[in-house]
Structure formats: C-alpha cells, structure tokens
Recover the amino acids of this structure.
C-alpha cells in the first residue's frame, strides 16, 4: 500500500466541501415552525374555501332536487 505523497497534516484534511455540508440559502425556521409545521393562517383560509364550496354544492343539489319534485308533483 502506498503512503500519502504529502507529509503535511493540514493538506490531508483540506478539500472541497461536500454538497450536504453546504449551507442552504433558505431562511431559518423558528421553533414554532419546526414543532407545529406551517403557520395556521394559510390552513384556515383553505379550510374556509373548502367549506364554502361544499355549502354551495349542497345548496345547488338541494335546489335541483326541489325543482324536480315540484315539476313531477
């Protein structure tokens, strides 16, 4: 087995930084974001939109059923 060419100790440990050791450009997350996930504001607005869409769909279906019953009766 060959010995290293350089006897300098510092050269053994210097080299390119691996991609997984580099720091990302993303902003740091707070403790609450790590524990709770994303903020609750974005989730609640999406929930209200889903609830509103379901209510409109139910009212539309109820109107269609009522009009069919009135037409047949």
């Amino acid at each position: 087995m060959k010995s290293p060419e350089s006897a300098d100790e510092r050269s053994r440990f210097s080299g390119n930084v691996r991609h997984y050791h580099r720091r990302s450009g993303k902003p740091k997350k707070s403790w609450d974001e790590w524990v709770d996930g994303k903020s609750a504001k974005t989730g609640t607005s999406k929930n209200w939109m889903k609830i509103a869409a379901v209510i409109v769909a139910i009212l539309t279906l109820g109107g269609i059923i009522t009009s069919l019953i009135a037409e047949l009766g």
Notes: The CA atoms of residues 30 and 37 lie 10 Å apart.
